[in-house]
Design brief:
Helix content is 33%, strand content 11%. It is an alpha/beta fold and 727 residues long. The chain has a domain of 346 residues. A hairpin with a 7-residue loop joins β8 and β9. The longest helix is centred in the N-terminal third of the chain and has 34 residues.
Length: 727
């Protein structure tokens, strides 16, 4: 794709360019052989050809198989009508080569282990909704054998050659290694156009790049593919259009009075209350009534009870419990506060005193300020509607303080016939009940958030945008899109290494999952550290199969370690991410929910594959409602682990959806080095000019023939069918 000049920069940020369909990113060379066996040509042989031929423009040329087709037709006529069997016979050597490559790699790995005397070892946790597949690393033999010549099967190069290239980089092992923009120690990077491992070659903007990211010991690659710094990230320099409310976009602040560094003023319209089915029913509404008995004299507004209870001094967790129960009489004997009480007693005396004398009173003031901070009715983001809400971070804090003190009416009943049965819970009562270590860590993160916003009021905005495909489901079998760039890494996290990208939340259809209960996996952790995400539970109805939720501007307030039961809050974080001209942090998080499978083989049925593709595309699509930059996607093992999705299938489905949306991908395998290499090799194969439609058809055939019964060979079977499709 031709490079645009600076004058087209703003346009490129917001509008789809019909020419931007991946044509410039196909990753193939004109020097490739035109016959089918050329697809399996070793890259070392290809490099020999490159030396003898002048470089060609970065433009894919379709393989010319006309001569092969004529020969096949003659063979088919001679051998009979079973043309598919003929094709298989003709391609058998090529197909066998694909399988042999995997077997050779496994054999070499075992030989190395036998020579070194070290078994393979398993690396860290598999974060996110992940599969429990084995993740392996290999050790160096011993200190004395450091320099021993070891050859391990690796795409196009030996470990010895890769290490030798790493040694030629400017930074030596004795020098301080530079830090990249994500705050991580920079890997050994080889960027030599004339000397490169053949299978590490990528085509980008008509320029060949070789990027090899090694682990600190230099023994195992921690990332492959396109350099992560080469993927597009959001930039404040890309100016957004002026913030304006519309029929589908509710703005809760004075849009024309936004000043950098100042808290946005709330919008005060003519209508201050909306007690109906289209808006959030607010605690301060005059229609929020409490009826002590059946007589008229026993009726009073619940808001008067809230102001009275929270106007008193709250000097202990028991005082907090008493205050909350005073305006939730129906649940006085049902709600328990064991977790909240245990949390306060687990704190150091000084920290406990700080929370009770400073943070809790500040939160109570936020609650009582609700009529002035949020005077405009808040619409519900309902099913089958494409709608957005933009509010200030102060308004987020006010709403979350009300959720902490359980003031939202009609939101405590969870029965199937209740008014808000298709919405998440928002009041914090479930977080306060049964005590366990996970809830203590959750409360740590939540109090850390309130401590920060009370000490320094945030000045930005946050946008919540519900997306819906509106019947625009793709015919995946006919998609002409080529695959975009891929960076795949066994290390790093979506939120840290995917800064400035479209970051995927492995969501539940009920947004936020169990963040206010006992859940503590990828989605819940993200909602705890980017605490403003919890506000989405107030107004977002359960997601349909063709819907997603995009949140822009939610700030990160906490550091953490671990996952699930091992999750630990590690302290406050000051987020320094730049803001756009709407004063939102340049942080985009898209919530897409995968199917929870009870039977492993169900995920390989056509309707389920199409559903997952449409769900991912709904999240990845470009600016259906509000303006947006076409940044890369940061994702991982979406819908795996407890949801029983397989990473190999979910990986290529996300690559297909990203290609359809015209976005590059940064994929984090969370310690699974083997899967990192397999996904990279599959993607490299697909860049030989294959389209999303071709892969979809091969996938359908593979699933029909039940190739998933042998998952280690699943990608090789797909490659075989793609080769057959070119006959």
């Amino acid at each position: 794709m031709a490079r645009r000049n600076d004058s087209s920069k703003v346009k490129d940020c917001f509008y789809v360019d019909d020419s931007d369909n991946g044509d410039g990113q196909m990753g193939t060379k004109n020097a490739r052989s035109s016959n089918l066996t050329g697809d399996l040509m070793t890259f070392s042989d290809q490099d020999e050809q490159d030396k003898s031929h002048p470089s060609q423009p970065n433009q894919f040329q379709p393989l010319d198989c006309s001569s092969d087709r004529e020969g096949d037709q003659k063979s088919s006529a001679a051998l009979g009508s079973n043309t598919e069997e003929v094709c298989r016979n003709l391609l058998r050597p090529a197909i066998n080569a694909v399988h042999q490559e995997t077997k050779s790699r496994e054999t070499t790995r075992r030989n190395i282990e036998d020579q070194d005397g070290h078994p393979k070892q398993t690396t860290g946790r598999n974060a996110g909704n992940q599969d429990d597949e084995s993740k392996e690393t290999t050790r160096s033999s011993s200190t004395g054998d450091k320099d021993r010549e070891t050859t391990r099967s690796y795409p196009g190069a030996t470990y010895q050659s890769l290490q030798a290239k790493a040694k030629r980089t400017p930074a030596s092992s004795d020098e301080e290694q530079p830090m990249d923009e994500d705050g991580m120690r920079s890997p050994a990077i080889v960027h030599q156009e004339n000397r490169r491992p053949p299978n590490e070659t990528w085509l980008s903007n008509n320029k060949e790049e070789t990027v090899l990211s090694m682990s600190p010991g230099g023994s195992i690659p921690r990332s492959q593919g396109e350099g992560i710094l080469n993927l597009k990230r959001s930039s404040p320099s890309c100016q957004m259009p002026t913030l304006q409310p519309s029929m589908n976009h509710t703005v809760l602040v004075e849009a024309n009075k936004i000043v950098q560094g100042s808290v946005p003023a709330p919008h005060r319209g003519r209508r201050t209350d909306a007690w109906d089915q289209e808006h959030v029913k607010m605690p301060h509404s005059p229609k929020n009534l409490y009826q002590r008995d059946r007589s008229f004299l026993g009726v009073k507004t619940r808001w008067s009870m809230i102001t009275k209870a929270l106007g008193k001094k709250l000097s202990s967790p028991q005082d907090i419990e008493k205050a909350i129960k005073s305006y939730n009489k129906k649940y006085e004997r049902l709600w328990k506060f064991d977790a909240l009480t245990s949390f306060f007693y687990s704190l150091h005396k000084d920290e406990q005193q700080h929370y009770l004398t400073n943070v809790i009173p500040g939160m109570a003031r936020l609650v009582l300020g609700l009529p002035n901070i949020c005077p405009k009715p808040i619409p519900l983001l309902k099913k089958r509607e494409q709608r957005a809400i933009t509010m200030s971070q102060l308004q987020c804090a006010c709403l979350l303080a009300n959720a902490f003190f359980c003031t939202f009416p009609r939101r405590n009943a969870t029965q199937g016939n209740s008014e808000y049965s298709s919405y998440p819970t928002i009041n914090f009562n479930r977080l306060f009940d049964e005590e366990n270590s996970s809830k203590r860590e959750k409360l740590r993160a939540i109090f850390c958030y309130f401590d920060q916003v009370l000490s320094q009021t945030p000045c930005g905005l946050v946008t919540f945008e519900r997306r819906h495909l509106h019947g625009e489901h793709k015919d995946w079998s006919r998609s002409p899109k080529y695959f975009t760039k891929l960076h795949v890494s066994s290390e790093g996290t979506i939120e840290e290494n995917g800064k400035g990208m479209l970051q995927v939340d492995f969501a539940s259809p009920i947004i936020g999952g169990g963040v206010l209960g006992s859940g503590l996996v990828q989605e819940e952790i993200r909602f705890l550290i980017n605490t403003e995400l919890i506000v989405s539970r107030l107004f977002t109805e359960k997601l349909n199969d063709d819907e997603s939720l995009l949140i822009t501007g939610a700030e990160q307030y906490s550091h953490y370690d671990g996952y699930s039961r091992d999750f630990k809050w590690r302290g406050p974080m000051r987020d320094t991410t730049e803001r756009d001209n709407w004063q939102r942090r340049c942080i985009e998080i898209v919530a897409i929910d995968a199917i929870r499978f009870h039977d492993f083989e169900e995920q390989f049925k056509r309707q389920n594959i199409e559903r997952e593709l449409n769900k991912a595309y709904c999240g990845f699509q470009f600016a259906p409602l509000l303006p947006q930059e076409r940044v890369a996607i940061a994702t991982g093992n979406w819908g795996c682990g407890a949801f029983k999705g397989h990473p190999k299938l979910k990986g290529i489905l996300q690559l297909m959806a990203a290609a359809e949306a015209g976005r590059d991908v940064a994929y984090f395998t969370f310690g699974n080095t083997e899967f990192m290499k397999e996904l990279y090799e599959m993607h490299r194969f697909l860049q030989n000019g294959y389209t999303v439609g071709q892969l979809f058809n091969a996938l359908m055939k593979s699933c029909k023939e039940r190739d998933w019964q042998n998952m280690p060979e699943f990608y090789n079977e797909l490659k075989s069918k793609l080769l057959l499709s070119r006959m």
